[in-house]
Fold this protein.
Amino acid sequence: MDAILSVSQLTGGYSVGRPVLHNIDFQVKPGEMVGLIGLNGAGKSTTIKHILGLLQAHKGSIRVNGKQLSEDPQQYRSALAYVPESPLMYDELTVREHLELTAMAYGLSKEAYESRRTKLVREFQMEEKLNGFSQHLSKGMRQKMMIMNAFMVEPALYIIDEPFLGLDPLGIRSLLDLMVSMKEEGAAILMSSHILATIEKYCDSYVVLHKGRMAATGTLEQITEQAGCPGQPLEDAFYALVKDGPTA
Ligand SMILES: Nc1ncnc2c1ncn2[C@@H]1O[C@H](COP(=O)(O)OP(=O)(O)OP(=O)(O)O)[C@@H](O)[C@H]1O
């Protein structure tokens, strides 16, 4: 099956003379959830910024549904939704207005918007906050608002950056349930997280970044083999792969 996201031999970063990422190469297919893992500074957020088109590749390419951003920006952008690590929002808008804005930006019909909003607001127990200003939300509620915005779109590709921080256990469960159901409907999900015990239960495969390079990639079985600890948990394989310390 053709990949929804295809990152090919990506070298990139913040300035051309000093690449942060080197030859990153992986795919996310329909119905697949891929975990992007690595120590602080390994290059996870930088990889995500390249996928979102916020940074230019120095070498290599990124394709969404077979097209690079420059070939068809509209199609590229509308195929993906992003849940940021820290909430990006307009303080003076309500939760409802944020959701409306997203629905407009992605051209959702009124019916789709209303039925998805009702489901999401219920799932994340945000009924009472729907008409409240986003600046009055708690940290976890802000995160829930970002998640609701992304899931409202029901895109082909979800890019989710460390989503669990700040969420209560019910919120984490709701998010995981939603990811599973979108995946079952054929969505591709790329999620970065440090919570290895959780993602081990949900991801189909992993990309392990270390110092801006790929230390390993594949299913849990393949990763543990590459790390020299077959049959062990993801955390043990991860430790074996990155034990020479964080980014130099
Ligand atoms: N705006 C920036 N300008 C220059 N270098 C940056 C910038 N942001 C990050 N870096 C560098 O890029 C490298 C990779 O950082 P990145 O943010 O991608 O790591 P990460 O894997 O997401 O880490 P964390 O787990 O801490 O979020 C680090 O060496 C970091 O110092």
Summary: Residues 88-154 form one domain. The radius of gyration is 18 Å. The beta strands are 5-12, 21-28, 33-37, 57-64, 80-83, 157-161, 188-192, 205-210, 213-218. The longest strand covers residues 5-12.
